[in-house]
Amino acid sequence: MKITIIGTGYVGLVSGTCFAEFGVTVTCVDKDKEKIGKLKKGIIPIFEPGLDELVKKNISEKRLYFNTDLEKSLKEADIIFIAVGTPSRRGDGHADLSYVFSVAKEIGKRLNKYAVIVNKSTVPIGTGKKVYEIIKKINPKLKFDVASNPEFLREGSAINDFMRPDRVVIGCDSDKAKNLLGELYRPLYLLETPIIFTKRETAELIKYAANSFLATKITFINEISDLCEKVGANVSDVSIGIGLDGRIGKKFLHPGPGYGGSCFPKDTLALVKTAQDKNSPLKLVEHVVQSNLNRKKMIYKRVLKMLSKLKKKNKVISILGLTFKPNTDDMRDSPSLNLVPSLIKNNCKLKLYDPEGMKEAKTYFKKYSNYIKWCNDSYEACEKSDALVILTEWNQFRALDLIKLKKILNHPIIIDLRNIYNPKELQELGFDYDSIGRPI
Ligand code: NAD
């Protein structure tokens, strides 16, 4: 079987590489010539644990190819995946489908034999139908099917998520397409992965419903953590106490500075917009979106409050972790995009460090470069700072040498926005320690 993936970003590159690992011949296409040039040489444009080796292995075993030439890449494809971005559309928050539709037009112009076209991008309900109509209009004689196969991988553990998913969702109404996609995912049958076949619209909705539910869980525990601070309860114990209930589950019950990343913020918003358009508003998700935006916007106040004890005017603050979560270099909608500018606007100078996100972060914070010192490690970042903020829970921040930290910081203030340290221990060591929902 031969497949083509259009869009070689986080999802396209990981899925393409993993399909190649299943034994299929894969061509990953992208319009970004520099990216494809690098990939051909085995240089990976993103940080994703384990991806580097897997790409190189599948290139050398001649199952994984990269190309910018769409026409050539479509020639022998049995299945064509669309894996381009669907960011929030400026102004109204709907998913911007211009990349998806432009790919559909390209396919319509260039495809000249049967293939299944699959939306792997996260797209609103009804997009599969629109993609079908676009191709049909351009090429009325072409025989093809359009399916939906949303992707649930998480950056940072993307390969494992793709190779051992909780489930695969395939939405399509044609038996031929179902059989082809079933054949593609056959290696997962061996692991007894549930493969769920649905209507195309249902598959499209499953993806948005899943992300909105997870975002709701995070927002719920964030709001509970606020209440914990008011009433002297401990949110970590609340999470355990409710999470052990099988109906609730332990995951996604960690309070923090608000969810970010390339999916939850835009997908929750897009679902809200679709529901409003269909006159079936999702008030719960609307609240989640607003609550999370407020949280990210206001988190700087927590930092300033801790610093208010210091008389100094221009404070220097260290921030460890800039990406929206550990094990990725992805900065999209990261809480750091709110925190960094807000602190700078409040006369702070910043010392920043992230294990993998520095290159990306430097592009996002270019206009603040006069106020930022980029550091090479955690300790350099903390040297002579007035406070330390832990913003992303990278493993290497979990076991910092606290005695050393106390010596090198100007003031032993730590604001731990991921609750990775023990409040009692930090207090005993003489730190002025703040964490989320765990009053000392
Ligand atoms: P990305 O921005 O990392 O990658 C998109 C790629 O598509 C880019 O390399 C871009 O150059 C390319 N592209 C755009 N238009 C093109 C065209 N006409 N021809 C060829 N290439 C083109 O995006 P991503 O994070 O991989 O997300 C892709 C989709 O998958 C989105 O809908 C997203 O919501 C969804 N998704 C993402 C994740 C994730 O963790 N990143 C997880 C699940 C689902």
Structure characterization notes:
- The structure is a single chain.
- This protein is α/β, with parallel strands linked by helices.
- It contains 18 helices and 14 strands.
- The strands form 3 sheets. It has a 6-stranded parallel beta sheet, sandwiched between helices. A 6-stranded parallel beta sheet has the order 11-10-9-12-13-14.
- Helix 6 (127-138) links the parallel strand 5 (115-119) and strand 6.
- The radius of gyration is 24 Å and the shape is globular.
- The mean pLDDT is 97.
- The protein binds nicotinamide-adenine-dinucleotide.
- Residues 6-12, 29-32, 35, 83-86, 99, 102-103, 121-122, 151, 153, 155, 262-263 line the site of nicotinamide-adenine-dinucleotide.
Describe the secondary structure blueprint for this structure.
Blueprint: E1 2-6, H1 10-22, E2 25-29, H2 33-40, H3 51-60, E3 64-67, H4 70-74, E4 79-82, H5 98-110, E5 115-119, H6 127-138, E6 144-148, H7 158-163, E7 168-171, H8 175-184, H9 186-189, E8 195-198, H10 200-231, H11 235-243, H12 264-277, H13 283-307, E9 316-320, H14 336-345, E10 349-353, H15 358-364, E11 372-374, H16 378-382, E12 387-390, H17 402-408, E13 413-416, H18 423-428, E14 432-435
Parallel strand pairs: 1-2, 1-4, 2-3, 4-5, 5-6, 7-8, 9-10, 9-12, 10-11, 12-13, 13-14
Helix pairs in contact: 1-3, 5-6, 10-12, 10-13, 12-13, 13-14
Key phrases:
single chain, 440 residues, alpha/beta, 14 strands, 45% helix, binds nicotinamide-adenine-dinucleotide
- Strand order of the biggest β-sheet: 3-2-1-4-5-6
Count of distinct strands: 14
Average the pLDDT over all residues and give the rounded result. Answer: 97
Main sheet characteristics:
6 strands, parallel
* Coarse structural class: alpha/beta
Q: List the ions, cofactors and other small molecules found in this model.
A: nicotinamide-adenine-dinucleotide
- Radius of gyration computed on alpha carbons: 24 Å
Strand content: 5-15%
Report the helical percentage.
Answer: 40-55%
- pLDDT < 50 stretches: none
Shape: globular
Cα-to-Cα separation, first versus last residue? 59 Å
Q: How many distinct helices?
A: 18
